Amino acid sequence: MAFWLSVALWAMCWGGMFTGIYNIKNLGSSNPFTFFQAIRMFFPILAMYASLIWILKERRTFPFARDPIGFFFLYSLIGLISSIFLTPTASQGASPFQGTYWVSVYLSPLFVIWAILGESRVKERLQAVIYLNYGVFFFLTFALFPTAVRIFRGQAAFSAFYNLPFGFGQVTKNGTARYAMIVIIVAAMRFLAERRRRRYFWLGALAPALFLLMQTQSRTGLLGLVVVCALYVFLQGLDWRYLLAIPVVGFIVFVSGFQMRAAGRFDMLLDLSGRGSTWGLALEAIGKSPFLGWGFDADRILLNHEQMHNSYLHAMIQTGVLGALCFFAAFASLWFVILRSGLLQAVRRHRGADRIVLMESILIMGFLTSRGFFESTAAFFGVDQLLVIPAMAYIAIAASEPVAEESPSEAAEEWEPA
Question: What are the residue ranges spanned by the domains of the chain?
Fold first, then answer.
């Protein structure tokens, strides 16, 4: 029962994606889909409420006192204070409960993971949550793939936005590249890990995801591809066969990033695409409330709905310097734990699904950490946060566990770790 409850609660967090408090006006709609879009905004809050009951019933202790996720709780609590007392006024376009709502849904996956970590066989439950994430990403990648094909064939114009299925709205090309990158990480890891013919099944996912990544021309996605490839070499060790992948990765980065996106101009490759002016406006707003910020969703209110495109500035405008330090500490402490525990080397001595999921989690965190400098990774309730929290939890557990010593015969099988 606890296993399926964990999955159901995490699915409820996903149920609140692609909607929000802006849909509250549609609660009285007679259109079933419009009403469903509105009612979904409460799913993460219900998941948090159910998790809190579970935690209190089982008398769970707080598991994140020495865990990177604990810093996200501090960040959220500071954001809650800011959202209640410092949210921009209605004259600035804010509703009275706007910040409070967004910090509440941000807390929901944290409470769900808290409830899960108190259970037995916790890694199996975390794996189920992670696999649910994978399922969503594979679905969205394949749903967006036909648009990329139409653009490639000249049947659709290249746009900064891709339409999500079922009328759930739009996603930016950087967001689309994020979906593709997660599929690339998972499909590539599974292809390398399988020894049987079924390994080639993963090429059926890897090729479309690479094509979608190229078609978006997303520099954050291409940067993530390079970071992930380099990090994989650290995890698995040097092997001459990795040289076979260098031309493929180089071709994707050169064609998509340099030729298609930058039109062959190096200065265009480094252009910030308007981020500089947005960051300047953000710093002005932060200067007016530097310690506690303006509450969650303040960037959308104070910057005329512009996207921040930087996790740390996003955290700062919402929670000030105090909250931003906690947010930064969550990522910094994770990599400190990884390095201090020697997990980059020890991961080779893990076995089976545990080894694969652990490597995928480290690669995903490498991608999202690099992405955070140019996108608002995990600074608000969104897709990135639902990736980060279980991956962090899984890595932290693995870093605290002893692993078996690697035998010479096992060391020879590094190319195929399954």
Answer: 2-411
